[in-house]
Amino acid sequence: MVGFWKLLSRFLCGYPADTRPADHIMNRLTDDFARSVPAPTALKSKIHYDGAVKGFGLRVTKAGARAFVLNYRADGVERRLTIGSYPDWKVSTARKEAMRLKRLVDQGEDPMGERHEDRAAPTMSDLCDRYLTDHAPRKRETSRREDAALIKRWIKPEFGTRKVSDIRHADVDALHRKITDHGTPTRANRTMALISKMFSLAVRWEMRADNPAKGIERNNEEKRNRYLVGDELRRLIDALAAYPLQSSANAIRLLLLTGARRGEVLAARWDQFDLENGIWIKPSSHTKQKREHRIPLSAGARLLLVEIKAAAGSSEFLFPSSLGTMGHLMDIKRAWASISQLAGLTGVRTHDLRHSYASMLASSGLSLPVIGALLGHTQASTTQRYAHLFDDPLRAATERVGVMVTAAGEDRPGATVTRLKKGQ
């Protein structure tokens, strides 16, 4: 009987059964087999397993696609990991990879589980969305809009598809330089501040363990000290009167009369004002310092508010949206550009009206603490930037002392007084 099988083997294979190559004896996969094995007709796919490495096989789909796979167990769970497709992977290379993966499994690792975790790891786009959903609503409306604009313009296009855990310090620094080279160094700094905050939250939300935005060298920013000088104030008032959209003009007037921030004025509601007693109570949700801020209103501001209220109708906002929505006026950039042109103002922003308000307070002899209180500053160092506005009042004061001392000296017998020429 044994002789019969040997003869049959020689007839079918051309060599004795006990001298066949090892690949054939062990049913080892070969490139020839991977290339020529027919696709299944009744099943969606069929796996042909290798005889040398347990769990390693070639999966052939009904459409004829071929890929190498590895079956294994990890923590009592059956896994099937796709190594790669044929012919991109040759049999020998795929077999070596299967052996490497099996060694990892023997050491207690789970290659497929780690791959799933990596695929499920949050991306920068996920972090941006969560920041806008969970954190941004706590900020002022203007800040939320600025954050959303920076995310849309710079952060998502640069990092959106990358994993949060993959971003490195060098990546963040490169983005800072890119925005700077684009000609917007201040915006580059604002973007870095936003990214740093997002990564700090990512650490809290257990998306990564560190903040790669720490230590980024920021661009130097010169503090602006622009305020209305000479007859600029008169020209501005004339331009406001001539501007056709008086709602926007009134918003600018209120900025000038109160020194408030643009966002505070545009989002102001009537329930914040006590016109009888002349008080504006800004809620903490509307102030930069997140603290309630009470400021007295001048007679001019109160008169303006009465006029605005008469024109506002039933809206809860001082400056309702011109788009017919229930919200308030969101921006006055175009209005300010037109009014500045009418007034012949150059290099003046709406925020500089706040500086102008402070300069008028200083020229009236008010102290820095009083100015800081009116502007809503919580730290004296913030108000200190306006110290230069006291140069003229202080010069006038010291000149008065000089006149008194000089006069007293002239009255002393035998005294010689030397008068300085202008400019000495």
Q: Would you mind describing this structure in some detail?
A:
It is a single chain. This protein is an alpha+beta fold. The termini are far apart. The model is unreliable at 4-25 (pLDDT under 50). A hairpin with a 4-residue loop joins strand 5 and strand 6 (279-282). The strands form 2 sheets. It has a 4-stranded antiparallel β-sheet with strand order 1-2-3-4. A 3-stranded antiparallel β-sheet has the order 5-6-7. The chain has helices at 2-13, 22-25, 31-36, 91-106, 111-120, 124-135, 141-159, 169-181, 185-204, 232-242, 246-258, 262-266, 299-312, 333-343, 352-363, 368-375, 380-383, 391-411; strands spanning 45-49, 56-61, 66-74, 77-85, 273-274, 279-282, 293-296. The chain is elongated and about 115 Å long. The longest helix has 21 residues, at 391-411. The chain folds into 3 domains: 2-120, Double Stranded RNA Binding Domain; 124-204, DNA polymerase, domain 1 (Orthogonal Bundle), CATH 1.10.150; 232-391, hpI Integrase, Chain A. Helix 6 runs antiparallel to helix 7 (141-159). 50% of the residues lie in helices and 9% in strands.
In the CATH hierarchy, the architecture of the largest domain is Orthogonal Bundle
Oligomer state of the chains in this structure: single chain
Q: What is the distance, rounded to the nearest whole angstrom, between the alpha carbons of the first and last residues? A: 130 Å
Q: How many structural domains can be distinguished in the coordinates?
A: 3
Sheet of most strands: 4 strands, antiparallel
Mean pLDDT: 81
> In percent, how helical is the residue content?
40-55%
Strands of the widest sheet, in order across it, are 1-2-3-4
CATH homologous superfamily heading of the largest domain? Intergrase catalytic core
CATH class of the largest domain: Mainly Alpha
CATH fold type of the largest domain? hpI Integrase, Chain A
Total beta strands: 7
Shape: elongated
Radius of gyration: 38 Å
Q: Which structural class do the helices and strands define?
A: alpha+beta
